[in-house]
Design goal:
two-stranded antiparallel ribbon, Tetrahydrodipicolinate-N-succinyltransferase, Chain A, domain 1, single chain, UDP N-Acetylglucosamine Acyltransferase, domain 1, alpha/beta, 5-stranded mixed beta sheet, globular
Length: 220
């Protein structure tokens, strides 16, 4: 890994190296390993904290300029993009519902179910989680939850609301919501995320995450 990392760091500082076949081969090998789950951009350390491998993020960014645009046809649908679509779901043990798409390079764990969504080489779907936000293990995000570093994540399970930013605790059940904020021009509703409960032990990881939301009478 150290050789690949050195190659990426050098290309990051000198983009002319992207013309090198050695550099391009290194980038494509990294993307292939990300796609297979051998490398992870972020992984949990033994102490429970999360480690982000910045050099792998750089490799993803550098992957785009070395790729050429191509037309991708899927039945009657046509796309024009630089990154191919992920394939081979059956052998990967992944269930993909129609209208769910994933880009090559995005690892999807065996047993995962992709409802209508879009999985980018980092992350995406009707839920939006941007860089700088950490999601605790086994947390459940309801449809249309948007999390950024500045999003108010409000725990409403106790007698008083508790506001967090940039972190969703493990096993939390989260849905979209709004809160009232005063501006010079008046009072308006601002988007937020609401922690409405904790995932029950009875909701096994193999059970649809929809069931975890239904435990709290959330429409899915």
């Amino acid at each position: 890994m150290s050789s690949l990392q050195s190659t990426i760091e050098a290309a990051w500082n000198d983009r002319t190296l992207l013309k090198s076949s050695e550099t391009q081969a290194a980038i494509r090998e990294i993307i292939s390993r990300l796609d297979a789950g051998e490398y992870r951009v972020a992984e949990q350390a033994p102490d429970g904290n999360w480690i982000t491998h910045e050099w792998l993020k750089k490799a993803i960014v550098l992957y785009f300029p070395i790729q050429e645009m191509q037309t991708i046809e899927v039945g009657p649908f046509e796309f024009h993009d630089k990154i191919p679509l992920k394939s081979g779901y059956a052998e990967k043990g992944v269930r993909v519902v129609p209208q769910a798409l994933a880009r090559y390079g995005a690892f999807i764990e065996k047993g995962a179910i992709l409802m209508p969504s879009y999985v980018n080489i980092f992350i995406g779907s009707r839920c939006i989680v941007v860089e700088g936000v950490r999601i605790g293990r086994e947390a459940v995000l309801g449809a249309n939850v948007v999390l950024t570093q500045s999003t108010h994540i409000i725990d409403v399970t106790g007698p008083e609301p508790v506001t967090l930013k940039g972190f969703v605790p493990p096993r939390s059940v989260v849905i979209p919501g709004t809160y009232t904020k005063q501006f010079p021009a008046g009072t308006y509703q601002v988007s937020c995320a609401l922690i409405i409960g904790e995932r029950k032990e009875s909701t096994d990881k193999k059970v649809s995450l929809n069931d975890a939301l239904r435990d709290y009478a959330v429409s899915v």
